Amino acid sequence: MIQVNNLTKIYSNGTRGLDDVNVNIQDGEFICVIGLSGAGKSTFLRCLNRLNDATSGQILIDGDDIAFAQGAKLRTLRRRIGFIFQQFNLSTRLSALENVLAGRLGYHNRFVGALGLFPQADIDLAKGALERVGLADKFNVRVDQLSGGQQQRVAIARALAQQPKLILADEPMASLDPKLSGVIMGLLKSFNKDGISVVVNIHVLELATAYADRILGFNKGRLVFDGPPSALTESE
Ligand code: ADP
Ligand code: ADP
């Protein structure tokens, strides 16, 4: 379980990106985060994975606080959180398989080695993740030869191959043809069956209500809604 207590992020210019946010995320939940542009959705996800540092508060992962953890402790905990970006953030000159293997090292760790560096078990795991997202025939294709939708699926496989407890996705459909939204959401949702929690920032409300078990609504850095999609429509 992930427990967020009194999480506040004040940017250096004084903007309150997050204001005293409290939320618990259970294993295997599918959560969509909604809110207007500037509401704090991206700051929330980025703080959860320490791409941004919070100003104060706690982020407990099975009781371990990562909000201010450093060094090896931070790396270990972070390995349990996969992050999917709007713009994929892949190494476009490397193959799909190399990108997924790079995720085994941590997405922030620029992949410089050769496939031979990895144990066969890692390679099998990475191939399994690519198969899971429907890219079994693309292992050795360079990412810049793939379509946008295929690239995002490589990014999803990269997150999955980290064997995470939690996957965070920041507007993962925003750079794609809207027709692909259902494919991406369906894939993310399928990971819940393995007990992985998924938190997706999304600006299309219909997609959020169609897929989420639970919706978090942000406004001006504050968590202003936390409940099932049905409660959202009732409150309108
Ligand atoms: P959303 O993802 O909901 O669009 P963000 O989390 O990006 O919202 O932004 C929340 C607030 O924090 C906004 O007012 C935004 O302008 C501000 N903000 C985001 N990043 C920074 C930054 N690096 N420096 C200062 N303010 C920022
Ligand atoms: P989003 O997709 O979340 O709406 P934005 O376009 O608001 O992203 O922001 C793009 C980048 O600029 C992000 O890295 C964000 O952290 C940063 N940023 C956003 N608002 C501000 C701000 N007011 N001051 C400085 N940086 C900002």
Automatic annotation (TrEMBL):
Protein name in UniProt: Phosphonates import ATP-binding protein PhnC
PANTHER family: AMINO ACID IMPORT ATP-BINDING PROTEIN, PHOSPHONATES IMPORT ATP-BINDING PROTEIN PHNC
Gene, per the UniProt record: phnC
Entry-linked PROSITE patterns: ABC_TRANSPORTER_1, ABC_TRANSPORTER_2
Species per Swiss-Prot/TrEMBL record: Deinococcus ruber
SMART domains in alphabetical order: AAA (SM00382)
UniProt xrefs under CDD domains: ABC_PhnC_transporter
Keywords, in A-Z order: ATP-binding, Cell membrane, Membrane, Nucleotide-binding, Translocase, Transport
Residue intervals of the ABC transporter domain: 2-236
Pfam family, one: ABC_tran
